[in-house]
Amino acid sequence: MARPARRIEISQAADELLQELEISPYTHPKVRLRVSILRLHRLGWSIPQLSNHFGRNHQAVHNDLTRFEEHGIPGLADDCPPGQPRRVTPEMEQFLHEKLREPRFWNATLLCEALQEQFQLLIGPRALSNHLRRLGYSWKRSRYSPAKTLDPQVAEQHRSSLETLKRGHWTAN
111: how many CB neighbours lie within 10 A of its CB? Predict the structure, then answer.
């Protein structure tokens, strides 16, 4: 004897929320697929029909229905991926945003040192620059130039010492 067809009840209010998720451009594609499966299931589609329509196996469709039954709409989203937790916390990101708003020159090495002083976090400049790039920052070449033009009298007074520095100290004697 065959197993009876599985049916779950989806309320009208839940269906309206599912419809909003289905048409939203900000919904993750996996969630949108699960929402489509649920909405068609509500209309009476069987699991084999859903499986054939979406190109998924029967167990995957069952899993999607079970997720909704157990956790509701929030259960349609995937959990956090496995792996190490993020080293840079939101508090550290806020600290970096504040530092980068300061009117001074920052490079990845200086920011790493600031993070180490404030949060005792050891992170390399390359890893930090990758993280900042994900936050929307980009690196620009910095140039050391005076903020205003030099006074000609002051420049003339120090011209000989500047020439000595340009030639090198050992050739001046």
Answer: 20
Cα separation of 24 and 31, whole Å? 11
pTM, to two decimals:
0.51
* Alpha-carbon dihedral angle through residues 39, 40, 41, 46, given to the nearest 10 degrees: -170
d(CA 9, CA 122): 52
Contact present, 115 and 95 (Cβ < 8 Å): yes
pLDDT in tens, the chain (173 residues): 556 678 888 999 999 999 999 999 989 999 999 999 999 999 999 999 999 999 999 999 999 999 999 999 999 998 877 888 888 899 999 999 999 999 888 889 999 999 999 999 999 999 999 999 988 898 877 766 667 787 888 878 888 887 777 676 554 44
Confirm if 39 and 27 have CB atoms less than 8 A apart. Answer: no
Token pair of 21 as six digits: 């998720």
What are the residues whose beta carbons fall under 8 Å from the beta carbon of 35, sequence distance 6 or more? 18, 21, 22, 27, 76
